[in-house]
Amino acid sequence: MDETAALKTTPLHALHVSLGARMVPFAGYDMPVQYAPGVLKEHLWTRSSAGLFDVSHMGQVTIRARSGKYEDAALALESLVPVDILGLAENRQRYGFFTDDKGGILDDLMIAHMDDYLFVVVNAACKEQDFKHLQDHIGDSCEVTLLDRALIALQGPRAVDVLAELWADIAYMKFMDVRHCRLHDVSCLVSRSGYSGEDGFEISVPADKAEDIAKRLLEHPDVQPIGLGARDSLRLEAGLCLYGNDIDQTTTPIEGALEWAIQKARKTGGVRAGGFPGATRILGELDGGTTRRRVGLKPEGKAPVRGHSKLYAEAEGKTEIGEVTSGGFGPSVESPVAMGYVPTDFAAPGTTVYAEVRGKYLPVVVSTLPFIKPTYKR
Amino acid sequence: MLKFTEEHEWLKVEGDVAIVGITAHAAEQLGDLVFVELPEVGASFSKGADAATVESVKAASEVYCPLDGEITEINEAITADPALVNSDPMGAGWFFKLKLRNVGDLDGLLDESGYKELIG
């Protein structure tokens, strides 16, 4: 993108500025990377209390079958994702991804079954392309609408109590439940999910009501605003992929270790096996394995190993075997953490590989993900 | 004598040796530091060469050698506890001592008022 082009803003932009946020360009938006306390304290606050994130830059889309039936919308979307959408219970959400004909990942997304329609959240940088993808492939049978709404994430162990003061029923929601509700008399769509590894909620709010809702949430002593910097370190500790870093069109879901998101119905032998772009390759890899895998990487020393660092088989850095896709310091684990791709032969936890950092080859140990214990309320 | 570079290093000069660190402004801009890599004692650097590395949660940054010289001492307290750079950047958070090749080069650096003007 042309850096001189005007950046877009979310409905919470003025609030971020008034709260003293340091703003940076992200996916074409002027977004808060951190507030006065800084990334470290914001990260730890989210893990111990409740952090408020503006994720309004992400795309919110509804998909309604022209027939009016949920089943028709579900089957249409199943032609683009390897996820069981028909079997998704009402008011439940699932993680999934759009794939291409070669089995690469076009974007990852959250898919919710509302009464007779699907509510989908996609990444900011991909939303126009995703919208077109949906229009082009299922536009004949479905009405696809890109919504103009804000999205606020409240993440952390205190999030449920903060929101229960506004809507008591929220406490009965389980991880990945989605409900319509009213918060301060504003009609919202709430899911018990997020991208921090913590219990928490994402709240879809009409754009013109977003600032009011956010301000009221921030009045609570347990809630602090949190920037994209801490969002990145939180999701990295939780072992969650960032599209464009850890997964993209050059990685398949199986290479990305995302096979858990492909339900039985869509796998070989399932009732609706295949039928999505790249199914031959993806199901082939699911059955026969891949040559490389995304793994957790724990540097042995104190030096953070960043994204794009090359990985080698030996301490002398002779044989390049892969690359770090995300890496940094994990404030909760109090050490550097990273993720990256290694050949399957090197993917077993406990295997030592070497990352090139400023001309040195630092030992990093393949580790199980996540680096922290998630606190989802299943 | 206290001098500053436009790259946000400070130098406290005693004779021909300068104690070098990063300014409070730089420490604030970098955010909470979680890792510091210092040069080896005895290493020589030219002005502007990468002499040390600091890393925050988010990103790595280089600390440049402010003038030509040789490292005579390093502050291992900040490699053990990088947060010292944030809490006391102009004191306990110093980086290294540099024996200057040419003391006269100091004239080309900023004084305190010049640096304050730079950071506005």
* Average of per-residue pLDDT values of chain B: 96
In total, the number of strands of chain A is 19
Number of domains of chain B: 1
Order of helices and strands of chain A: HEEHEEHEEEHEEHEEEHEHHEEEEEE
Q: Identify the CATH architecture of the largest domain in chain A.
A: 2-Layer Sandwich
Helix-residue proportion of chain A: 10-25%
Average pLDDT of chain A = 97
Task: Please provide a written account of the structure.
Chain A: This is aminomethyltransferase. Chain A: InterPro entries: GcvT, GcvT/YgfZ/DmdA, GcvT/YgfZ_C, GcvT_C, GCVT_N, TrmE/GcvT-like. Chain A: One of its GO terms (molecular function) is aminomethyltransferase activity. The complex is a heterodimer of chains A (378) and B (120). Chain A has 378 residues and is an alpha+beta fold. Chain A has two domains: 1-289, 2-Layer Sandwich (Gyrase A, domain 2); 292-369, Aminomethyltransferase beta-barrel domains (Elongation Factor Tu (Ef-tu), domain 3, Beta Barrel). Chain A contains eight helices and 19 strands. In chain A, a hairpin with a 4-residue loop joins strand 6 and strand 7 (118-122). Chain A is globular. Chain B is of the alpha+beta class and 120 residues long. The two termini of chain B are 22 Å apart.
Overview in brief:
Chain B: Belongs to the GcvH family. In chain A, 19% of the residues lie in helices and 33% in strands.
What are the main properties of this structure?
heterodimer, A: 378 residues, Gyrase A, domain 2, Elongation Factor Tu (Ef-tu), domain 3, 6-stranded mixed beta sheet, 19% helix, globular, B: OB fold (Dihydrolipoamide Acetyltransferase, E2P), 3-stranded antiparallel beta sheet, 4 helices, 38% strand
Describe the secondary-structure layout.
The complex is a heterodimer of chains A (378) and B (120).
Chain A: H1 13-18, E1 22-26, E2 29-34, H2 39-48, E3 50-54, E4 59-65, H3 70-78, E5 92-99, E6 105-113, E7 118-122, H4 127-138, E8 142-146, E9 149-155, H5 159-164, E10 178-183, E11 186-191, E12 200-206, H6 210-218, E13 223-225, H7 228-237, H8 279-288, E14 292-299, E15 310-312, E16 320-330, E17 335-343, E18 352-357, E19 360-367
Parallel strand pairs in A: 3-13
Antiparallel strand pairs in A: 1-2, 3-9, 4-7, 4-8, 5-6, 6-7, 9-12, 10-11, 11-12, 14-17, 14-19, 15-16, 15-18, 16-17, 18-19
Chain B: E1 2-4, E2 9-14, E3 17-22, H1 24-30, E4 33-37, E5 44-45, E6 50-56, E7 60-64, E8 69-74, H2 76-80, H3 83-87, E9 96-100, H4 112-119
Antiparallel strand pairs in B: 1-2, 2-3, 3-9, 4-6, 5-8, 6-7, 8-9
